[in-house]
Amino acid sequence: MGQEGCIFCRIVGGAIPSERVYEDDFVIGIRDISPQAPTHILILPKIHIASLSELDDPALAGQLLLAAKAIALQEGLGARGYRVATNTGEWGGQSVFHLHLHVLGGRQLKGLG
Ligand code: DGP
User: What DSSP element (H or E) covers 84?
Assistant: First the structure.
């Protein structure tokens, strides 16, 4: 299943290996291959959705966000804090067009930009 040629669909399906730190019925959490912070997790819906602009299921939106919180706590980021972000489209800096949340933590994060 999944969108042909989509690297994150292949990760969800297991065809491309990843370090999976979280899974429920709707999303998975994997370690980013190019971490921008000591902890950098990506949360992907199991179904192919290109970006936040194509997300219209409020239940899935909630599942993604609550998975981000659960993973942050699981990764020990609760006390000092963390960032959840999703890059959307060209000017948003999105490079993989399968919706994902970034969970970043483990150091002081600077402003967005
Ligand atoms: P974005 O630029 O927001 O679309 O983020 C894409 C992220 O995906 C980027 O931080 C690097 C990560 N990434 C790309 N390819 C792979 C991969 O094959 N495995 C893993 N674990 N992460 C990947």
Answer: strand 82-85
Whether ligand 1 lies within 6 angstroms of the CB of 10 is answered as no
Q: How does pLDDT run across 30-54, given as a tens digit for each residue?
A: 999 999 999 999 999 999 999 999 9
Domains of the chain: 7-99 (3.30.428.10)
Per the annotation, the verdict on 102 as an active-site residue is no
Choice from 11, 18, 42 to test ligand 1 binding pocket (greatest atom count within 8 A of CB): 42
Atom of ligand 1 nearest to the CA of 94: 4
List Cβ neighbours of 70 (8 Å cut-off, separation of 6 or more).
22
Does pTM surpass 0.90?
A: yes
